[in-house]
Amino acid sequence: MSIIKTAEQFAKMQGVPVVEKVVGHIDGDKFERLAARLDDTDPWAEETRLWMLDVAQSVGCAYLFTMCPSSGSTYRYVIDGSCDPSDTENYSPMGTEENISSWSDAPIDTMRSGELTSSGMVYQEGWGWTVSTYKAIKNSNGRNVGFVGCDFEISFIIEMIKKKIALIVSISAAIFVVFVVIILKLRSLMAQIRLSMRKEMKMGEELFVAAQNLVVSTRETAATSQDSSAAVKEIVATMEDSNVLSDNISKKIKGVSEVANSTSSDVVEGVLQIGHNLRQLHDIFDANQQTIDGIKKLGKKIESIWEIVTLINNVADQAKIIAFNAELEANTAGEAGKNFKIVANEIRRLSNGIIGGTREIKEKIGEIQQSSDSLIIASESSTEKIKTGYETANGLSEKFENIKKSAGITAASAADISSIIQQQAIASDQILIALREISAGVENFTTATDTISESAENIRRISEDLNNASHSVGKKSGS
C-alpha cells in the first residue's frame, strides 16, 4: 500500500505541472470554437497538437489530450497530443466520443468545479494502470468549456508491487515451513526426552534392585567368612593338639631306643624287657595309627578349607562383576553417578585384593597338603617298621640269638622313627604357621566383607536416591 500511495503521489506530481502548462498555453475561446466546429484542418488546432506532442514526449507521459462535454458523461476528443495520428491504436481523432464514467469522478469534478483533480490509480481497458490529472479549460467569460487530461502509466510500479508481494509470500511460506520444522523438531526432541527419562527411571529401578541384591550377597558373604574364620580356628586348635601328640610320640620313640640299646648289652635283661617292649611297640603302633588318622582328618578339613576358599573366591568374583556392572551404570548416570562410580571402583579393588588373598591361601593349602601327604607316607612307613619289630619280638622263642640283632634293628628303627617324628613336628609347625596365616587372612576377609557390606548399603541408598530423583523429574517432565 505504501508503494501504491507513493506511485500515485509521484504520477500526480508529474501530471500537475503538465496540465497547468497546457491550460496556460491554450486559448479558451479558440478551444470553444474548435470544439463547436470540430474542424481538424484548423491551423491553430494542428499547431497546438504538435506543441502538446512535444510536451508529452519531453515529460514521458502516456497520454496528453483535451476533451469537451457532449452529453451526460459522454465527452468528445478535441486535440490529442499523445502521439502521431499514424498511431491509430493510441491516437484519438478529433470528435471521437467516449463515456468517461469509468475513468473515476475526477474529470467530471474538474468540469464541475474547474479545479485541478487527480484520479488516483485506475485500470483502463487497453491502456493498463494509469494515474490521470485533469484541469478545466476556461473561456474569456470564465466558463469551463473543456479539460486537459494527462495520464502517466504506472504498470512498472504494479509489477514491482507484484514482485514485492511474491517475495513477501515466499518469505512467509519459508517462515511457515521453518516454524513447522521447528515444531516437529521440538515434538521429536520432547519425545526423545520423555523416552530418555523413561529409560533413566528404568535404569534407576534396575540399579536399585541390583544394589539390594548386592547388599544381600555381601551380608551372606560376611556370614560365610565368619563361619570360615571359626572353621580355620578349629583347624588351628586341631593342629596344636597334633603337635602335642607328635611330641609324645617322639618321647616314646626315645624310650624305645633306650630300651633297644639296653637289650643289646644285656640279653637276659632284654628278655625280661621284651614284654615291656612289646607293650611299648603296641603303644607306638596305636599312637602312630592315631597320628595317621589325625593327619587324614586334617586332610579332610583342609579339603573343606578348599571349598571355603573357593566359595570366598566365587563371592569375590560376584562382587567384582557386580562392581563392574555398577561402574557401567554409574557411567550412564553422568555427573549424578560420580560418587557411585568411586564406590564401585573401591569394591572392585577390594574384590581383586580378596581374590589375590585367596590365591595365596590356595598356595599355602597346597603346601600343607603336600606336607600332610609326606607325613602320612612317613607314618605308614614307621607303622610297617613297628610291625616288623613287633613280629621280631614275638619270634624270640624260635631264635633267641637273634634278639641282639632285633634289638639293633629296633634301635635303628627307633632312630628313624625319631627322625621322622621330628620331621613330622617341623611339618606340623609349618602347617600351624600357615593355618594361623590363613586364620588372619580369613579375619581380614571378614573385615573386608563388612566394609563391602557397608559400601553395598551406601550403593543401595545412592541408587534409591537416584531412582527417586528420576521418578520426580519424570513426573515434572510429564506434567
Describe this structure in words.
This protein is an alpha+beta fold and 479 residues long. The protein contains 8 helices and 6 strands, in the order H-H-H-E-E-E-H-E-E-E-H-H-H-H. A 6-stranded antiparallel beta sheet has the order 3-2-1-6-5-4, sandwiched between helices. Helix 5 packs antiparallel against helix 6 (267-332), helix 6 (267-332) packs antiparallel against helix 7 and helix 7 packs antiparallel against helix 8 (403-478). It is rod-shaped and about 195 Å long. The two termini are 47 Å apart.
What are the SSEs and their pairings?
Elements: H1 2-25, H2 28-37, H3 43-59, E1 63-71, E2 74-80, E3 97-99, H4 106-113, E4 117-124, E5 128-138, E6 144-153, H5 155-265, H6 267-332, H7 338-394, H8 403-478
Antiparallel strand pairs: 1-2, 1-6, 2-3, 4-5, 5-6
Helix pairs in contact: 5-6, 5-8, 6-7, 7-8
What distinguishing features does this structure have?
8 helices; alpha+beta; 6 strands; 6-stranded antiparallel sheet; 479 residues
Average of the residue pLDDT scores: 78
Strand content: 5-15%
Morphology? rod-shaped
> How helical, in percent, are the residues?
over 70%
Structural class: alpha+beta
User: Mind describing the biggest β-sheet?
Assistant: 6 strands, antiparallel
The total beta strand count reads 6
Order of helices and strands: HHHEEEHEEEHHHH
User: Biggest sheet, strands in spatial order?
Assistant: 3-2-1-6-5-4
What kind of oligomer do you see? single chain
Please tell me how large the radius of gyration is: 65 Å
- In whole angstroms, the N-to-C terminal distance is 47 Å
Low-pLDDT ranges: none
Contiguous helical run count: 8
